[in-house]
Amino acid sequence: MIRLLLVDDQDLIRRGMKALLKSDDTLQVVGEAANGQDAIALVAALTPDVVLMDVRMPVMDGVAATQAICQQFPGTKVLVLTTFDDQEYVTQALQKGASGYLLKDTPFEELVQAIRFVQKGYTQIGPGLSHKAIAAPPVPPNPPLELTDLTPREQEILQLIAQGSSNREIAQVLFISEKTVRNHVTNILSRLGLRDRTQAAIVALQKHRLN
């Protein structure tokens, strides 16, 4: 069971999302918040697995709340779910630690799949938003190694991460075990000085744009 916290300043939106999510017995909505400040307090109290975070809200917006949650509660993942596809929001949310960015018109089945992937530690970026994500400078801005310093296999895996592939999907594509993929991912993050798969995806997308 994946425990969810819904964060949106519109009560009607929260009610609709809760009703939809209830239809999947692998998901449980454990709380709701109307702004980022309340969201932080509820994460501390309820320890949800995934926070579905809106961007524009009163008191504290979703980007600031995402940063606080990711810093204070690393076990909780944040998946931004909003109507705004502004490049600034996309890049800032990912830089502050969000594990994904989706629009509210995402089909329900795709949203559920994204929640599951994010809970497992994968990055989920909505269709048409990748080109906006690559505008974000990687953190840290100067990785200790260039991507060309990775092995050919590591470069293949990094590109698949950028496409949103899970470890299982990467293993199937490359005909290797999931354990081998996990070892490669750990090595990639370590060698490039990156924190997580989201940063790795941004670095790969940015490099692809420059080439």
UniProtKB/TrEMBL annotation:
| Record-annotated Response regulatory domain positions | 3-119
BP GO terms, sorted: phosphorelay signal transduction system; regulation of DNA-templated transcription
- Please name the Gene3D superfamilies in this protein's record: 3.40.50.2300
Mark the residues carrying the PTM 4-aspartylphosphate: 54
Domain (HTH luxR-type) ranges: 143-208
**From the UniProt record, which GO molecular function terms apply?**
DNA binding
What InterPro entries would the database entry show? CheY-like_superfamily, NreC/VraR/RcsB-like_REC, Sig_transdc_resp-reg_C-effctor, Sig_transdc_resp-reg_receiver, Tscrpt_reg_LuxR_C, WalR-like
Keyword terms of this UniProt record: DNA-binding, Phosphoprotein
The name this protein goes by in its record: DNA-binding response regulator
* Species in which this protein is naturally found: Stenomitos frigidus ULC18
